[in-house]
């Protein structure tokens, strides 16, 4: 089957305005890099997402899930098959001390929603620029908190196309990891169990974390956040700094001079620049300190 056929079929299956062909992905990623998706589908409901997945599984069309693109480098050759962009499914609701968010709701918005409802537990997420689905996938965390501390359950679609309710334990959450990729699950929504708190206390904590983040991270440039995971016993940023790599640039991508763990697109950077700079940093750190840096950022797509 060709991408034209996928486009025609999917346009009949769901709202035609939610299906695009040869869509540039650089506008969907935080690094502002990446090639095109053969087909990009932006469902607005669980039903639409389910229909698209069923079609892809039935017709053996490769499918890639995309949240806010804040932890992804999509290579310059783009992505073959269908990219399922969840960003339009962003409802957030609450019931007592529990908040339920659709996969595409930004975790920052869920954190702000918790503040409005005077619920504590999600303050750590107030500056993490991903979606709820992406935050579960990565077990996102910051400043001592992470998704696994507050996640109660989720609704997912399995790789057999079945809708399933799962508990947090089922998702095998660990340091910046989960079993979502191994099981090829699509997260549709998540429920967080929080505690009643006081508005001013929650707000103060969020303001404090925001201040820390803004003073330490190069948020004025496109980036994908921390490129590497923390290697056991070390800090990736410190190893990079001590390897004199800050300011090193390949093409339009540079190791940030403000935060050594970040690589910023200083203008015209490509995904290939990112991949080459990542490799250069890994090789240099390995040579100097014998430490393997594992990427936290997901690198996908074709060269
Ligand atoms: C400036 C900056 C600061 C950051 N700070 C932090 C931080 O403090 N802590 C932290 O943990 N991270 C941080 N990140 C990284 C990133 O925001 C998180 O990893 C976030 O959880 C990724 O979510 P996303 O929606 O952007 O995922 P994407 O980048 O879109 O996708 C990441 C992975 O999740 C998968 N995925 C996305 N949605 C779904 C879904 N619904 N179902 C199944 N799989 C899905 C994708 O297929 C992909 O493999 C930062 C990034 C930036 C750019």
Key words describing this protein structure:
303 residues; binds flavin-adenine dinucleotide; four-stranded mixed beta sheet; single chain; 9 helices
**What is the overall shape?**
globular
Give the N-to-C terminal Cα separation: 22 Å
Q: Give the number of helices.
A: 9
* Spatial strand arrangement across the major sheet: 6-7-13-11-12
Nearest-integer average pLDDT = 97
Number of strands: 18
Helicity level: 25-40%
Could you spell the SSE succession in H and E letters? Answer: HEEHEEEEEHEHEEHEEHEEHHEEEHE
Which distinct ligands sit in these coordinates? flavin-adenine dinucleotide
Radius of gyration: 20 Å
Most strands sheet: 5 strands, antiparallel
Report the β-strand fraction as a percent range: 15-25%
Overall SS class: alpha+beta
Low-pLDDT residue spans: none
Short summary:
It is built from nine helices and 18 strands. The protein is an alpha+beta fold. A five-stranded antiparallel β-sheet has the order 6-7-13-11-12.
Report on the architecture of this protein:
This protein has 303 residues and is of the alpha+beta class. Helix content is 31%, strand content 24%. The protein contains nine helices and 18 strands. It has helices at residues 3-13, 46-58, 107-116, 132-138, 147-150, 180-183, 199-216, 236-242, 271-289; strands at 19-24, 36-41, 63-66, 72-74, 79-85, 92-95, 98-102, 119-120, 141-142, 145-146, 151-157, 163-167, 186-193, 195-196, 249-250, 253-255, 263-265, 298-300. A five-stranded antiparallel beta sheet has the order 6-7-13-11-12. A hairpin with a 5-residue loop joins strand 11 and strand 12 (163-167). It starts with a helix and ends with a strand. Residues 30, 65-72, 86, 103, 128-131, 133-135, 137-138, 140-142, 180, 185-187, 217, 219, 223-225, 298 line the site of flavin-adenine dinucleotide. Flavin-adenine dinucleotide (FAD) binds next to strand 3, helix 4, strand 9 and strand 13.
